[in-house]
Amino acid sequence: MADMEELVQRLERAVSRLEVLSAESHRRPGDCGEVNGVIGGVAPSVEAFDKLMNGMVAEFLKNSRILAGDVETHEYQEDRNDLVISETELKQVAYIFKCDKSTLQIKGKVNSITIDNCKKFALVFDNVVGIVEVINSKDIQIQVMGRVPTISINKTEGCHIYLSEDALDCEIVSAKSSEMNILIPQDGDYREFPVPEQFKTAWDGSKLVTEPAEIMG
């Protein structure tokens, strides 16, 4: 994850330099001399952009696995139940964006997985060393076959998580979400436990204490 963060920071710095160069470049094409055998050449900003796309951007795309198309097009997946990522590496990040009524299986071990703006989407994965995030989504199902340390649910309506025996120590972090259920394997089946949505907070004389509120029925 640190390698990816460093790469993103380098990419942001390069884009900033490109923007400055583009703003400061006022030379006409004919004043650029001869570049790559072309009379008049190209503007420095164009050369910088070309180096950027062939350098750090290419490296970023190589280290990332993007479902729903590549970074430029963001092609959506809909009504697909045969989506599989089988060739994975530990440093890879899976980003699933605006997929509808589809199922994805990720084999092997990856760094992290993000589900963003998806509806009626199911994810099955083996192992994640970092975090699985669900953001701005609705009606999501996640099945953990191996291990994952943390699953984060944010601004999501409806999320069912099936944990494996090896993932029972997984931490579930939720915010601004509803209809969340964790399914625990027991006696060859799953037992469902709802994630609290309501909390009560009280002052104990020295600090605030917050705990789940029991729903009176």
TrEMBL record:
Q: Which organism is it from?
A: Microcebus murinus (Gray mouse lemur)
* Protein family per UniProt: Belongs to the CAP family.
Q: Which PANTHER family does the protein's record reference?
A: ADENYLYL CYCLASE-ASSOCIATED PROTEIN, ADENYLYL CYCLASE-ASSOCIATED PROTEIN 2
Q: What is this protein called?
A: Adenylyl cyclase-associated protein
Q: Which residues form the C-CAP/cofactor C-like domain?
A: 29-195
Q: Which InterPro entries match?
A: Adenylate_cyclase-assoc_CAP (IPR001837), Adenylate_cyclase-assoc_CAP_C (IPR013912), Adenylate_cyclase-assoc_CAP_N (IPR013992), C-CAP_CF_C-like (IPR017901), CAP/MinC_C (IPR016098), CAP_C_sf (IPR036223), CAP_CS_C (IPR028417), CAP_CS_N (IPR018106)
Lineage: superkingdom: Eukaryota
Single GO MF descriptor: actin binding
One matching Pfam family is CAP_C
The alphabetized list of GO BP terms reads: actin filament organization; cAMP-mediated signaling; cell morphogenesis
| SMART domains the record matches | CARP (SM00673)
Query: One GO CC annotation, please?
Result: cytoplasm
